[in-house]
Amino acid sequence: MQTQKRHTRTLEQHQTEAHIVKPAELIDFKEVSGGLTLADRRTYNLLLANAWDTIKEPVLHAIRLLELRSSNQDNNRPRDSLQRLMKIVVAFDVEEDGIKRVVLTQLLGPCKLDHNPQGLAYYTFPEPIRAALENSKVFARLRRDILCQFRSKYALSLYEMVQKRVNLSYKISENFSIDELRQKLGVEKSKYKKLCDLHTYVLKPAVFEVNELSDVTCSIESIIEMRKTVGFRLSWRKKETDEVIKSTHTGQIAPGRADLKLVDNSPAAEAAPVETVKRLRELDTRECEQLKKTFFGYDIYSFYSEFQDWIEKDGKEVPKNPPAAFTNWLKQYYKITGPQQKPQEDRATRTIQQNTAAETKRAEAEKFERSQAENELSIQWFETLPDNEKKALGSDYLAESNTVDVGGFKKSGYNYTGFCFFVKKIWKIKQANTE
């Protein structure tokens, strides 16, 4: 008897320092309203990975804001990204009880952000997202270092689409309609309406970045019927080992988007060598972990991408030891000499302690003022009493407290706390009897 193949659930997979597991439902979604930016998509991937262990539960997840802001000095970018993720509506397909449905939802639920720049961001996932993830059986593994190197959101979306499909056994391509591919790549309806503009500014640059940076190769071809483009065919394959090594260690990358729109497809142009610029190799996992320990609290992948751009822009020689050169660059260019979190936490702790001490001192002062006011009222009331009532109260006080005589209290201006409290107590009893 043939055993039925067991489908592995997405939530059974584990997030690692090198890879992010992302469910297929959150890869092939369509943006119904608004437009997510490259920073929004990167931020959402980090939020998913951070909350993975408890993502199906309706709880608040916490992440440090500095982990979301990349190389920025403030938290404006992650705050804007969180707002857009809460606002923009997306649609994706699910199957529930054998029925196919379309789910419309925001990507994030309510969030809370600390005012402190070194504080935390608390966020939640809407119920439709949690339900889809709990039933998800298809996913992609995304390399963290590559996610930070893409320069366009279309390339990042294409990379996620390919990574979801590249491990299929009997499928190497998939057809999409024009509108379907635009939606999956996140192309706004108002942009690149002409097919030539879509090819020049979206498809060609995205394919180029994915092929140059990742360990997969893809292509997008037009599907033509009756001399008219009716859709696109996305094809993919994994790179061979020598191709991966070559793309990782050659330290070169071809021209960017501005040069792609001027590509000449003639045979003479194909035979001509492509002008290249210098590019660093990627950091391996061990190097990244060491840099994270040395510069705790900083986004190493984003800074390393900036370091690559800096070398490319200034035309500098590619260093033989990238981690050492990168460390020196951080110290000189950004004046970063070590971890930033601990000193800032100490400063924040001192601020909290100072605020607590000031609040305690203020509360004690207010309590003393109220006590003084109550004593003054008690004394004024006692002074207005006839002598016989004063003497009776004094006798009652002496009988109950067994302390010094009433004359001593009179000489001291009736400021003795026990006497004032006693008088105040008798006064309240008398007022209650009168009413």
Q: What does this 3D model show about the protein?
A:
The chain has 435 residues and is α+β, with helices and mostly antiparallel strands. It has four domains: 8-144, Winged helix-like DNA-binding domain superfamily/Winged helix DNA-binding domain (Arc Repressor Mutant, subunit A); 149-265 and 274-279, Orthogonal Bundle (Arc Repressor Mutant, subunit A); 285-333, no CATH class; 358-434, no CATH class. It has 17 helices and 13 strands. The chain has a three-stranded antiparallel β-sheet with strand order 2-4-5. It has a three-stranded antiparallel β-sheet with strand order 3-7-6, with helices on one face. α5 packs across α7 (195-213) and α14 packs across α17 (417-434). The longest helix has 43 residues, at 341-383. The radius of gyration is 35 Å and the shape is elongated.
> What structural class results from the helix and strand content?
alpha+beta
Strand content: 15-25%
The main sheet comes to:
3 strands, antiparallel
CATH-level-2 architecture of the largest domain: Orthogonal Bundle
- The strand count comes to 13
Q: Helical element count?
A: 17
Question: What oligomeric state do the depicted chains represent?
Answer: single chain
Specify the CATH class of the largest domain.
Answer: Mainly Alpha
Output mean pLDDT.
76
Count of distinct structural domains:
4
Q: How would the global form be characterised?
A: elongated
Order of neighbouring strands in the sheet with most strands: 2-4-5
Extract low-pLDDT stretches: 1-6, 249-277, 341-345, 400-406, 410-416
**Radius of gyration, in angstroms, nearest whole number:** 35 Å
CATH T-level fold name of the largest domain = Arc Repressor Mutant, subunit A
Distance between the termini: 94 Å
